[in-house]
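Hello forum,

I keep getting stuck at the same step: I have a sequence, I want structure tokens, and every attempt I make locally crashes halfway through. Rather than fight my setup again tonight, could one of you with a working pipeline run this one for me? It's a single chain of 114 residues.
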Amino acid sequence: MAEAAERLNDELIQWVTFQLGDETYGINVMQVQEVLRVSEIAPVPGAPDYVIGIINLRGNVVTVVDTRSRFGLPYKAPDDMSRIVIIEASEHVIGILVDSVAEVVELRADEIEA
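Reply #2:
Ran it on my machine without issues. Output:
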């Protein structure tokens, strides 16, 4: 059993890293479908505060979440570096607005600060 856990810790996993404020976060590359420049986001009346709106992604409606709001960070208007990361989470496709996307890195589980 300990051997299996050790092998899991030794396994390299690829992460798409992104910035929110001064912090760097990562999403398992297997959950990321694509990264988009910020374009027109249609507001959704009555949606929770953290939902910016929806976008049309090749005929599919995708909800875009304000990640800064969900993490308790102050509002920042999207700029040229901002991106929408399209991810699959719990069998749903959503977009998360981030300040910027940095790079894809390979890390072991024991190298990640949660």
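Helices lie at 2-10, 67-70. If your local run keeps crashing, start a new thread with the error log.
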